[in-house]
Amino acid sequence: MKNFEEKACLCALNRVFGFEPKSALAVISHLGCASALFTLNEKELEELLGPYSKYRHQIRRSAVYEAAAELESLEKSGIQFIGWGEDGYPPLLAECQDPPIGLYIRSSTPASQLWTPDKSIAIVGTRDISPYGKDWCRKTVEGLAATREKPLIVSGLALGTDICAHKAAVENGLPTIGVMATGPDSVYPYRHLAFAEQMCHTPGCALVTDYPPGTPPLQVHFLRRNRIIAGLSDATVLIESKLKGGGMMTARLAFSYDRDVFALPGRADDIRSQGCNYLIGNKIAEPVISVESLIKNIGLKYTGRNRKDDDMDNLTAVYGGRLQGDSLKEMAGILSAIRRKRGIAVEDLCGETGLSYSRLSSLVSMLEADGFITIDLLRRCSISRRSM
Known about the structure:
Blueprint: H1 2-17, H2 21-31, H3 42-49, H4 61-76, E1 79-83, H5 91-94, E2 102-106, H6 111-114, E3 120-124, H7 131-145, E4 152-155, H8 161-171, E5 176-179, H9 193-200, E6 206-209, H10 221-231, E7 235-238, H11 246-256, E8 260-263, H12 274-281, E9 286-287, H13 291-298, H14 307-319, H15 325-340, H16 349-353, H17 357-369, E10 373-375, E11 381-383
Parallel strand pairs: 3-4, 3-7, 4-5, 5-6, 7-8, 8-9
Antiparallel strand pairs: 1-2, 2-6, 10-11
């Protein structure tokens, strides 16, 4: 009960001090715990926060009761709230000077298991991504997936670079975190809702925000979101950006946290590369001259093996003596299609793989029987843990 009360107090403080977490953390450090703040009387609050503090009148017991009710409601919705200092709070984020007081997390994976990869890499950039940027974004994620460490990919679920990075991560079997500028009960932009739901149900993936339920995607909220992206990551890779933009903010924040920053150089006259070129020219970011050099500079071990290689190895181990190479490749293609579109219907896999329905049905039945995929009552397909 005491732990729940402390969590409720942290949740309440997150609503009060959300834009100034350092103030809340200083108070918690001074008092020893968040719940102690809500036991102070008016005079003690005035002495602690100052007579003109805008927060003084928001520190009230009713705020804790409201937060407790919110936590109970979140639990029913499958949303976790992890307060600063609690088990499951991201250790890298806790190292920053301004970590959020709490995080709302939507995931099928317990919060404490989301931060287990050896490295986490933020991949960010412009919403108006070019074919050059999109190609490099995908190649970068594919290269990271071909490392021994299999890092966590962090981005902001936005249009352009962000969603490209998230989708490439899921397709290549990497865990990915989408940091949102809204409450945990909504997704922005709305067109990414289906994929966001897929992320929530993919092991190792999650949607994360420090904004409480009901928070809309206002412009002022994105800077606060960007600091979490930078804080969650060992390194930040800027794919493309104008001189001003969210990706540039994230890269600068990462630099201020003493994290590694990399940027993809581009043409001097390309407005979408001006931000990257500026960071490189001012020695804020190291240039990305190849995927292999980026991986080495981040401190990962490149093996050259990707998710497709792993799928072929697993399939060969099970079917190698019974099926020919073309059948194994077709099965690997089916697994890849299901990763791209979790919950896809068996019938729709024909269009994704180019296989006839009779051929597809035969291979899908084998994959299900041998534990590579699961199919629900509505004939929707998902990757099983055997193939993760």
